[in-house]
Amino acid sequence: MEEQPPATTGPAADARGLDPRAELSEFLRTRRARLKPEDVGLPDFGRHRRVPGLRREELAQLAGVSVAYYTRLEQGNGRNVSAEVLDAIARALRLSDAEHAHLTHLAKPKRHKKKPAARTEQVRPVLRQLLDSFEGVPAYISGRRSDILAWNGMAAAVFGDWSELPVAERNWARLVFLRPEYRELFVEWDQKASDMVAFLRMDAGCHPDDPRLSALVGELSVKSEEFRRLWAIHDVKEKSYGVKRLRHPLVGELTLNFESFRLTDGTEQTLITYHPEPCSPSAEALRLLASWGADATKAGTNASA
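Above: the chain sequence. Below: its structure as tokens.
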């Protein structure tokens, strides 16, 4: 008998917390739903399908496991699953490296020692000195849950003076989904929003018992329809590199290359830098922003007003 289509995950479920079994179940269902038989070399006889994508029995066949075994896994029971089986399922589902890692985190979560919850993560002083040494290069350090922990003057000139925000508001997910000025700042805001949710999903797979992350997801689910929609897709992504187009209120459009460097000191912090192509209009615009410093965004906003 063919399974029924999965119910859509509602925002209230996310607001209550992050249940690893439910997360595993929904992740596998959404990955299976995006594949069609022809995508994986299976015949499609044109019969009416009551669920999107592959059926469980088709996925089990591709992975070389029994339907009953795969069904138990998709129902959230991954306690005894082996790494070899997870690898086979990842190949069958055509998972990316980030998705494969996320699947492993959900199926075989690591036990974290209970620690007193710190108010904020700490950035080593030498890293703050490093940020300040990046002359003309916007750079900042982000931590768990997309928190913005430290930044240099050029980052403040480009993205706004985060020192004026309460510590709890220095968070990329909050900025992107709850502050209109950041919707204006990112030319491809839809892509930025999608990436932001995918980063949070990755974090949630590693730390499903993080109460501050659960609270953040719950708040954003209540306050942002776009966040609810993207969270239900279950996409995951690692921070990497690329090109970002910004619409700065003082100097106009900027095209900047960004790079992400994961720190290896066990803090799970990431250094992100932005730089323009040499001798480009964006390079000249950054020089102008450097002369304004942290007041650049405010000056541009006031001039527009």
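The two ends are 62 Å apart (CA to CA).
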